[in-house]
Design goal:
Largest sheet: 5 strands, parallel
Low-confidence stretches: none
Oligomer: single chain
Mean pLDDT: 86
Distance between the termini: 42 Å
Structural class: alpha/beta
Shape: globular
Strand order of the largest sheet: 2-3-4-1-5
Radius of gyration: 21 Å
Helix content: 55-70%
Length: about 325
C-alpha cells in the first residue's frame, strides 16, 4: 500500500493493528506516522498510551513488554519502533522473531497498534511478509517520475486547501525535482503570494521558486564530494547570485547526502548509470560516521535558515559547504 491509501483508510476510521512504514522518504514516513498516531489515540491521554522505541537502544524484550500493555482511558495504545537512519543497529532476526510472533496473534480487536519505521527492509524476510491484512506494509519511497510527482503535488494542494493550476504544478516539478519537503514548502509560499482563496498560477510559482533541481545542483555536489573546497564555495556564490533560494540549495544538499549514506551502506539508488557511479565514487570519500555528521550539519543549517541564528542565510550556507567539502 502507499501512504495515500493509508491516509484515506484512517480518514474513514479504519485503524489496522500494525503498520510497517518502509522507504527512504522521511516526509512520507512522518506523514503516515502522524496520521496513525492521531487515529489511534483519538483524544486519549498520550503520556500513558504511547511507547517510542529505537533499535539499538532497547531490546526486543522491551518491545514485547510494550505491546502487552493495556491502554489507559483509551480504546487503543501506540507502540512505535524506529530504525534510526545512519546508525548500525538494524531490525535483525532477534527483533524479527518477536515481531513475527506478535503479528501471528493480532486481529482487528488488538488493543496495541504497532508501527515499525525503516528506511529499507528485505521483503524476503518472514517477519516483513507478516505485514499482510489486517496489518499493512506501507511503501514510503519518494516518487521519481514527473507524473507521480504531479500526483503528489495535487494531493498536497488538496491537503493545504490550495487551488493549484496544472501548469504551476509542472513548473514546480521542473524547478525542484523529487524533493517532497521542498515541494510542500514552495506550494505554501506560492499560495501566500497569490493571496487567500486565489488560484496559484505558473506566474506565482516563477516568482517564488528558484530553479534548483537535480542537474543545476550537480556542479556544487560534485565539487563538495570531490573535496574541491574553493570551487564549491565559488559555485555556491554563483547559484545565490543567480537567485537560487537558500532553502532550495539546502534541500538539494540534504537529498544528495542521504543518497550518499544509502550508497555507503550498500543500498541501491535510482538514477542513470553515470550518476550512480558518481555517487559511489563520492561515498568512498566519506566514512559512514562522517556522512551522519554531515547530515547533522545540514539539519543545523536548516534550523539557522529558519531563524534559529542571527547569521545570514548565505553565510550559514557558506559555512556548511566549507564543512561538507573539507
Amino acid at each position: 500500500m502507499n501512504v495515500a491509501a493509508i491516509l484515506a483508510e484512517l480518514a474513514e476510521g479504519k485503524v489496522r493493528p500494525a503498520y510497517l512504514l518502509a522507504g527512504a522518504e522521511a516526509l512520507l514516513r512522518d506523514d503516515a506516522l502522524a496520521a496513525i498516531e492521531t487515529a489511534v489515540l483519538a483524544g486519549g491521554p498520550r503520556d500513558f498510551n504511547v511507547d517510542r522505541l529505537e533499535v539499538g537502544r532497547v531490546t526486543p524484550g522491551r518491545l514485547e513488554e510494550a505491546l502487552d500493555h493495556l491502554p489507559i482511558m483509551a480504546e487503543r495504545r501506540l507502540v512505535v519502533l524506529r530504525e534510526t537512519e545512519g546508525r548500525g543497529a538494524k531490525l535483525d532476526a532477534s527483533w524479527g522473531s518477536v515481531i513475527e510472533s506478535w503479528l501471528s496473534r493480532v486481529d482487528a480487536t488488538t488493543a496495541s497498534v504497532l508501527v515499525l519505521i525503516s528506511a529499507k527492509v528485505d521483503k524476503r524476510n518472514k517477519w516483513v511478509k507478516g505485514f499482510r491484512d489486517p496489518a499493512a506494509l506501507v511503501e514510503c519511497d519518494a516518487p521519481k517520475k514527473t507524473r507521480e510527482l504531479a500526483g503528489f503535488l495535487a494531493q498536497e494542494a488538496i491537503r493545504q486547501g490550495i487551488d493549484l493550476e496544472s501548469e504551476a504544478a509542472a513548473l514546480l516539478v521542473d524547478r525542484i525535482g523529487p524533493q517532497l519537503l521542498m515541494l510542500r514548502q514552495e506550494i505554501e509560499k506560492a499560495a501566500l503570494l497569490a493571496g487567500p482563496g486565489e488560484t496559484v498560477t505558473r506566474k506565482h510559482v516563477a516568482m517564488v521558486v528558484s530553479a534548483v533541481a537535480e542537474e543545476p545542483i550537480w556542479d556544487l555536489t560534485d565539487a563538495i564530494g570531490q573535496g574541491r573546497v574553493a570551487n564549491a564555495v565559488h559555485i555556491l556564490s554563483r547559484l545565490l547570485a543567480q537567485g537560487a533560494a537558500p532553502p532550495a540549495i539546502l534541500g538539494a544538499l540534504a537529498s544528495h547526502f542521504r543518497r550518499l549514506l544509502r550508497v555507503g551502506h550498500g543500498e541501491s539508488v535510482a538514477g542513470p548509470p553515470f550518476v550512480v557511479r558518481k555517487l559511489e565514487t563520492q561515498a568512498r570519500r566519506y566514512p559512514a560516521r562522517r556522512l551522519v555528521t554531515c547530515l547533522r550539519a545540514i539539519h543545523r543549517a536548516d534550523v539557522e535558515l529558519k531563524g534559529g541564528s542571527v547569521m545570514r542565510s548565505e553565510r550559514a550556507l557558506e559555512q556548511l559547504v566549507l564543512g561538507l567539502a573539507s
